[in-house]
Amino acid sequence: MKPVYFVHRDAAAAERQSDGVELCVIPQLADGRIYFYCQSYAVFWRTLEEVGDFDKTCDFPPTITLRPATLVELAAAGLLASLDTVKQYDIANGRLSAITYIHLT
Fold first, then answer.
1. CA 62 to CA 5: how far, in whole Å?
2. Of 14, 50, 69, 98, which has the maximum CB count within 10 A?
3. What SS3 string covers the chain?
């Protein structure tokens, strides 16, 4: 399995030692929103403007699942211009074996 996430590198990403935030959807919420996930800190933000502000993170239960936001969803949300990187995870036998990055900027 090779999930592909689109990433926005916010101004605070380097301070967090992060690639940036992955744009994702949380199917259990069924709210049609794109969420911004920082894997380094395992936190979510609801809007691009809130990314990096730890006072504005979302409080979700640990049982949620994520899926990558699609290009169609990102276009509909007006977020295509905010994309900096495409990040592909190579998962084999339930383990991460590689990450491939394509930097767009």
1. 20
2. 69
3. CCCEEEEECCCCCCCCCCCCEEEEECHHHCCCCCEEEECCCCEEECCHHHCCCHHHCECCCCCCCCEECCHHHHHHCCCHHHCCEEEEEEEECCEEEEEEEEECC
Instruction: State the CB neighbour count (10 A cutoff) for residue 1.
Output: 7
5-36 pLDDT, tens digit per residue, is 999 999 999 998 999 999 999 999 999 999 99
State pTM to two decimals.
0.91
